[in-house]
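Issue 218. Parser rejects a valid record. Input:
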Amino acid sequence: MTLIFKNAQLCANGQRTRTDALLEDGRLVAMEPGIPVPSRAVVLEKPNIVLFPGLIDVHVHLREPGFSYKETMGTGTLAAARGGFTRVCAMPNLDPVPDDREHLDAQLARIRAEAHVRVSPYGAITRGEKGEALADLEAMAPFVAGFSDDGHGVQSEEMMRAAMLEAKRLGKIIAAHCEDMALVRGGCIHDGAYARAHHLPGICSESEWRQVERDLRLAEETGCKYHVCHVSTKESVALIRAAKARGVDVTCETGPHYLTLDENCLQDEGRFKMNPPLRAREDREALLTGLLDGTVDMVATDHAPHSAAEKSRGLRGSLMGVVGLETAFPVLYTHLVKTGAMTLEALLDRMRVRPAARFGFDDQNDWTAFDLDSACTIDPQTFLSRGRATPFAGMDVFGECLLTIVGGKIAWQHRMTAN
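Output the parser choked on:
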């Protein structure tokens, strides 16, 4: 099949221009203005088709090896491609946990065999993510995006200091899930108005920001490259802003759900349960301010699929985690760009440029195309991911992914017909 986008908007390097893009037999052949239309080509020419470098998500759970009933390498990366992502960074809470080269190789084999997009795994910080002994960071360093015990905060200050010193020596990033378990106390949602009204155990904001505070001090002491995962509280934003002003080598991410939802949106359904939880309106507002002023460097989905049964037990009994690869860009475009809160160029900076710069990705010929005028209602039953739990179900959004290209080859393509 021959496909040509005529007079599309090209959004790259912070600028917008007009271009044509020609694809033949699943490959990108040319991208420049004024390409002649081949005979029998499918031609798409709409005013708001936008081409831009593929999105990067530095925080996803692909569940293989070990938990393929939740997601497979194939389904997770196909969902990523459908969402416009050309590279994702996969978290290490797997079986086996990638805590040495042998265990990491099991994951790398699945990536080579099944991935539709580029996948950079994280190695674990500690053996089995148990916080008791350092993983073999040196053996894994050449093959990973960084080191994380995601799903578990490293409780020991001495252990985190040792990990940061080793990561500093190896030139790698520590990507920290910040959670002081002594402060969680069996909570299931944010310790706020909804929890009190519905007699549910709450998770206090201090359980996150107290460990962020500790780790920033350690990062300043050791000189380690430090990245804070899924920031959710206003206190964390303030601490990171102050640390950056002091020159600490820190970046952070937040998720689409923390930027667009808060505890006022909660329903007693598993699709609203994630870790950290949706917090108060003031936290959401602080995160958005941080995203706009550069304190919050990037957006990551924390795509975390579970089975339907695992998410069917309400807020108290369901497992933590929601999916997000197929909804992230439309949700953020609709809520942030169409409302005028930020420009499309700024959103792409947070979803591609800054993740690439921080983690050292220099991917070539990775592109995605969206029709920004296309409207739809989010329906989890249409997802390519095996996960269906999303707090955005039923939301009306704009922006439909038409095409994702990885290394010049089509990784995913929406069914398209001529104009």
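Fixed in the parser; the record now loads. DSSP finds twelve helices and 17 strands in the chain.
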